[in-house]
Amino acid sequence: MPEKEPLYIEEIFDYVSQRPQKFALNFWEDPRYFKLHRHNFVEFMYVVKGEGTEHINSISYNLKPGTFSIVMPYQIHRIDYSEQNPLSIYVVAISFEELLAPSSIFYRIGELLLSYDENVLPYYYFEGKEKELMDRLFKEAWTYFNQEDVWAEIILKAKILEIVAYFDRCRNLASAENSQRPAPSVVQNRTQKDSIPVPSDYWQLVYYVHKNYNQNIDLKVLSKEFHLSPSYISQLFKKLVGSNFHNFLNEVRLQHACSLLLSTDKPVTDIALEVGFDSYSTFARVFHKHKGMSAQEFRKRGGAG
Amino acid sequence: MPEKEPLYIEEIFDYVSQRPQKFALNFWEDPRYFKLHRHNFVEFMYVVKGEGTEHINSISYNLKPGTFSIVMPYQIHRIDYSEQNPLSIYVVAISFEELLAPSSIFYRIGELLLSYDENVLPYYYFEGKEKELMDRLFKEAWTYFNQEDVWAEIILKAKILEIVAYFDRCRNLASAENSQRPAPSVVQNRTQKDSIPVPSDYWQLVYYVHKNYNQNIDLKVLSKEFHLSPSYISQLFKKLVGSNFHNFLNEVRLQHACSLLLSTDKPVTDIALEVGFDSYSTFARVFHKHKGMSAQEFRKRGGAG
Q1: Which one of A45, A123, B57, B238 has the lowest number of neighbouring Cβ atoms within 10 Å?
Q2: How confident is the model over A141-197, as pLDDT tens digits?
Q3: Between A and B, how many residue pairs show a Cβ–Cβ distance under 8 A?
Q4: Which residues of chain B lie closer than 8 angstroms to A109, CB-CB?
Q5: Cβ–Cβ gap A150/B105 under 8 Å
Q6: What is the ipTM of this complex?
Q7: What domains can you pick out in chain B, each with its CATH number?
Q8: B150/A102 touch (CB, cutoff 8 Å), yes or no
Q9: What is the pLDDT of residues B119-152, one digit of tens each?
């Protein structure tokens, strides 16, 4: 990794409506999306063609046709791709809010995905009959994505629900089979229809920062809110998003600051306080450390790093 | 129709948990479910084998393999079936609440189904490729219905969403094609992704009675609540559930009274007031008219009519 991280945090963005979206389906063959980054939504990827390697936090694994992977919000990831055998992938993006809002159609898969279990891998290799099914589901989803009526929209979301639930079942059952020990409790629980898991506190921690970045939050506040010790919370952040809590909080605040720098004329000092920094000087120090330039320079350059 | 209607109002009921359910999928070959009745949930039916005729309110149509039909809450319906070529049908039941609660996975199809348009038929004949798709979807749904893990439950519901949205699209497009006039506004609106229809007031009227049967409600109250004239509301009830408002309200109240008569030891006079009748004498008169016996007799006989 280069010394200065080429780190950018994106939202799901629709180029037609020019608005952030809650959900998207894409088909990518363009490697410009593959460099190191993180974003505030969940991303699923399914490889149709080609070869590569994906890196999420500290985990790396090969990509080949039939590979399905999930990147959780704020996880740092990149793809190394083969020039000889370039990748074609379907990419599904679902906003953090959509997974956690009971009124969202995706809430039920949110309950599954956001209960963190470190024994369950973020990827699964579909093969044989299972791969045929997954190929077909994505092909159908893509057809409906390109139709513009309300029924197609519902059918598309239903397909995504099915795809994600099927993936999550396969990887959980594989994790139970592969381990020497008995099935992880999460699998034992989930295979019983009656005991639907409640969203675990773990990803709720990340969501809390995602929502309250502009408040005065620190490990003590989180500890009180979630009834977990500060040191345990600190470890969890490292596992979940690959940064310690303070770095992560600063990165989320900087994301919002950058977007305000580029989209408004607000004074930099106001922006610093608006996104949650306690003083302009702290903001200036953190900004320079992460971006390699001052906020004023960033604004003048139109965001180019 | 016989003089005394063999009318019963059912809930979705699970014989294992002994509790009312929000959703069920069944496969029926037993004609005892086909006699005249109504229930407080939405029912979808898909014919796999056999022949018959379904009657909903005042509409009748033939059943053959590939027929998909929908019965809305409280609509009176029955099936005449062929003895030579008996029916095999899939039946999906979804509670009224599930279609109207924003937190339900079925809310999105509720928005579609509950906007009443009298030009759109309650049935559609699937044929050719479309029928192959529907056959496959129901077969897959049935497989997942018989699996007992949380993922299967999500996939099943996703399939039902897909099935219902696909049916509703087909019948709306057919209604637009068949008519001489331009496409009904509902189809024009719905084929635009941006203009998702809001639940129309029409089925909300029925839902209002379904929820508030034990309150002091009449056409004046509904008129004030929904900003529609009492006479128009009266016509709507006739169209939607096939009874005038007062008969319908009495039937809903009687349903609850019967269930209290059989499941509790409460005095009949208490039950009469509890379900919304203004006096015991009104209750007694209405009960006798609908059931052909007194409430005391009904309780003694254990409900047998």
Answers
A1: B238
A2: 999 998 988 899 999 999 999 999 999 999 999 988 877 544 444 444 444 443 333
A3: 96
A4: 154
A5: no
A6: 0.78
A7: 9-190 (2.60.120.280), 201-300 (1.10.10.60)
A8: no
A9: 789 999 999 999 999 999 999 999 999 898 889 9
